[in-house]
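G.,

No rush on this.
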Amino acid sequence: MNMLLNILTYIFLISAQRLEVLPFALLGIVMLVLVFFVRFQMRNTKRIKSELEILESLHKHNVEYEFVLEVMRLSIWHFDTITGKLTFEQDFREKGNKYFTNVDGMPMDESVMALDPRDADRVRKALSDLCQGRMSSYHEIYRVRVPYDNSFYWEESYATIAERDTEGKPTKIIGTTMRVDERKAMEEALVKARNRAEESDRLKTAFIANMSHEIRTPLNAIVGFTSLLPDITDDAERRSLLDLVNENTQKLLHIVDDVVNISKIESGQEELVMTTFDLNMMLVEAMSHFAERLKPGVELNVEFAQESLTITTDMIRLSTIAKHLVSNAMKFTDQGSIVVGCDAPVDGRVCFWVRDTGKGIAEENYERIFERFFKVDEFIPGAGLGLSICRVMAFSLGGDVTVESKLGEGSTFRVDIPIK
């Protein structure tokens, strides 16, 4: 710039000395001014272009920033430790502030009061430690209550100290919060899957242990008694051994049938076969299989609300349920009675039941007895599959099996199913 002024001054002096070159001097001055103006405009244009590029970059950054926040459903918030006010810079939480109309400017204590009581004290202490400078960062996962409802949703928050005063005490906290309902649901599903896997492993172990014992018992009897047959010459003794072999063969077949039945039903390989029949007659026929095997001092009776009751369902499955319940009652009833009954239909459903005067069941085992291989008394023969099969079959018919019992006073098993 100084050089340009010097040149102009020089030209002016020369022009004053030689008036004949004045037009050329003026033209030179104009040219120099034009050159200066063009260069100035070029520099200005370059500066403006650079500033526009910076603004565009900032705008792009803001768009990307907001996009990330929105995709991750995050909120950015600030807490002023001096005023105690909580403010939100951005909030893309799904339904994040739907339930609170005055979140911006809300005192931190008031916002913590919205949390589930199970998490509120823990979160309040962590925030207090951060605001007092006892911690440099904060991370909590907690439940937020929904007003006027018993439900809640999950949130996860991170925070750190953004500014401090001259004494080093925090004056501003910056944090981020996001909804994590889907992640918590996934975690719960994984926990359930793990529990199911562990339960499956436990059941497999129980299956092997029970089956090895239950199958070995009748199998040992069959092998032992058949090995004695060639040496027995007395017809009565041979007949007695053959009866024992046949009895244990039936036990072995019964165990195998139970395992096959429950596996077929749960795998969906066995379809329902709907037939119309008299429920009372079916129950009487199911009882007849056990009449000769009753213990001395035990009676087997019936108690029907109607003389005849025609229903439509899968008769084979219903008969299997009845047989398992009567067989179960016989195992635990040493004296008294076993009664098979049927109530009158109500609202398209019918209930038949088996009541005994046996040992009874403790209340804490009401549901456990329907688990596979669970046995209240390990000394009672059986694989622990009967009641589990009853419930699975009842479920397949759209019904259920429940129990009412008192220790020492007997039990009543009720089968409730829909009828057509």
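When you get to it, here's the other one too:
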Amino acid sequence: MPIKAIARRLGVSRNAVRRALAKDSPPRYQRPAKGSAVDSFEPAIRELLREYPTMPATVIAQRVGWERSITVLKDRVRELRPVYLPPDPASRTTYVAGDRVQCDLWFPPVDIPLGFGQVGRPPVLVMAAGYSRMLFATMIPSRQAPDLIAGHWLLLSEHLGAVPRELVWDNESAVGSWRAGKPKLTEDFDAFRGVLGCGVHQCRPGDPEAKGIVERGNGYLETSFLPGRTFTSPADFNLQLSAWLPVANTRIVRRIGCAPVTRWEADKAAMLTLPPVPPALGWRHQVRLPRDHYVRVDGNDYSVDPATVGRKVQVVADLATVTVSCAGRVVAAHERCWARHQSITDPAHHTGALALAAQARKSTRGPEPDLVEERNLSVYDTAFGITGEEVA
């Protein structure tokens, strides 16, 4: 349609039609920007940020005399601050298959029945593979070194089936700590690391990002595993957790763009093999059995066959059982008690102790009195030459 015809139909001038056709979009009314009330304060704000880049926006408002809404000032400070604050980017770590597994203790915010009317919140040992993001976890009785090392071996031998080239830990007291600017492993964990043949990387204090994979795993457990669940015992907790983890490891992880199980075979193949001889695990000590025939493990007392009173016995406790042996013979076997300050008694040990005590009382009666010969006194009269009349 000619411009003249368009102008006639719309009732506008031909120049108006030409200006409209020359534009890329329909014409619209635009109001000129008036600016912001904070524009006049911007030079003072910049001066403060130049000297104090981290000064809070509320303090800046006081210094420059700002009396309007603090939201407008905060928006402007948020735009200006990066110009004066040095950037602090976080580097993205790239993991090689079989290289690292991050470890941490997670304390679930839920009360677990421990028996004997007690409830508690035992720690959960969590492992997260760096390359595949596979998640492994199990609840252990305590965070002490014997239980922590036993939990490591349980996950490595029965769940991972291999040993990563390096374990990543923070400053857990049973693992190690930083001293004089250098990491130092505990004696027990260093011996365990030597049996596995792997290294241990201890994160610097105050550096939670160094093991962010397992930290996010802890959060995922808390938000996706715990809600809607109830537990009757630590064994029930581990049973439900072991059934849930295979499902959790099929989720898509945004960072790697796939499910952890997709990468797990390559991750496991690059790891070290398990040692041919398992390490010495759990609580181990030797003691001479006292008269009350009980041994103590992690704050609880366990009965032992009273026939071994006074002899040396070897006590071994893992995550599930407590075993006592004497001269290579098992003299007590109990299920590990997760409660505290309890005495666990085997009825057979109690009955045997009563029988031995009764037998001991019989054997401690005094000896029969010695028989003394009684002589006739007339023998002495004859010896001294005294007759019967003289005596009378």
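The chain is about 35% helix and 20% strand. Residues 283-363 form one domain.

Enjoy the weekend,
O.
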